[in-house]
Amino acid sequence: MTRVVFVPSAPLLLLDAGPPELRAALASALARLPGEVVVVGAAPVPGWWTGSVDLTPYGVRGTPATDPLPLALAVGAHLVPGARLWGVPSGPLPESPSYLVVADGTAKRTLKAPGHLDERADAFDAEVVAALAAGDPHRLGSLDAELAGELWVEGLPAWQAAAGLPGPWRGEVLYADAPYGVGYAVAIWQRD
Amino acid sequence: MTLRIRGKALPDTSLVMAIVNRTPDSFYDKGATYGLAEALDRVDQVVAEGAHVVDIGGVKAAPGEEVPAEEEARRVVELVAAVRDRHPDVVLSVDTFRASVARAALEAGADLLNDAWEMPEPETLEVVAEFGAGLVCTHAGHLPPRTRPHRVAYPDVVADVVSTLTAMADKAVAAGVPREGVLIDPGHDFGKNSRQSLLLTDRTADLVATGWPVLMALSRKDFVGEVLDLLPDDRLEGTLAATAVCAFQGARVFRAHDVTATLRVLRTVDAIRGRVPPVVNVRGLA
Question: Considering only CA atoms, which of B31, B99, B18 is closest in space to residue B64?
């Protein structure tokens, strides 16, 4: 069985923070990943990454790492210690029994959102959640890149990479909300 | 260093010792908690607010009506026993300069002796050691209990405080008082004018550098009042400013009338110093 788990890319996940409903959904989704996992996340350089989860750029006290991971891969490494890390955009994803796709939606869902309110944000995130629920790679790969940029979506490269995984998938959304004005989704795709 | 008072470990954060006076005449509360029921209500309240230590006293610090040892013990022991029963886990301190009252209070379940007058009765030390209790060693300018400073002068007040308190703390440990329960207190206003108390506040780091945990009793005292020309009722902000300055430099325990306000200040200072993380982690991290 192959599985793909989708999680947000929020720095607060590195601090094990976030609302209880999100934490519960994450725990539930991660528990369903088999042992061998490839993390897929946006990175400045495509391909395999190794490095450290460095919290000092976010103000946490400590010694800065000499090999800090980019945010999405750091979140993946934090959630699934020991996972291999793949930076996107890239060519086709490496073969793996399972993937952790670290990506989140718009940052303009509410008046208090990081990017303030943009009324197009709800529909954009709803489209993402619908694609995840349907297990539809084509739909996930067809998001409007220009609009995504305007809505501060950072997850697009990872979703586009996941869209290259051949289906069909059974999709299941465990969490979809914007508690801090950023569109978060936790979802699972699986196929026999 | 972890503070452990008569077996009770305290968190490694800045801590609040709440003042509960079973006195008819203390300078700020003026008898509000003299009655047993009122005192117990006050204890319930400060524990609910999050005080780590409750400090019970039966004699006001300043000169005033003479309180015989039997009367002081009656006031204190009755309350200690009742509090011990209601709040078995809170660290319970007794503010007295009398060995007999210390003994009675420790027998009734107190954990810590807060002798604010530089221990005028030497046998107090054996009593504290006998019970394995904690001890606050306080600098009172070498004055007898309940006296006001009059033209006090020191060649170097900070050096006097550091040498007096380290000697007292070493002597306490040598006498058998558990090291992890010994604190030092520079004794603001006790045998000091306001400038001397302010200097000690500014130089908190020198006290912290001794390695002994530092207790600061600042709450609504005259040195704050003289800075601002305000009466005790209006000294909260000045007290909290001094609290922040001392906590920033590493003082550990703050004896306070205003528990919630003091806890909020200490939590903020601890977060600034990286001793505790913020409770909420969302801003800029979503």
Answer: B31
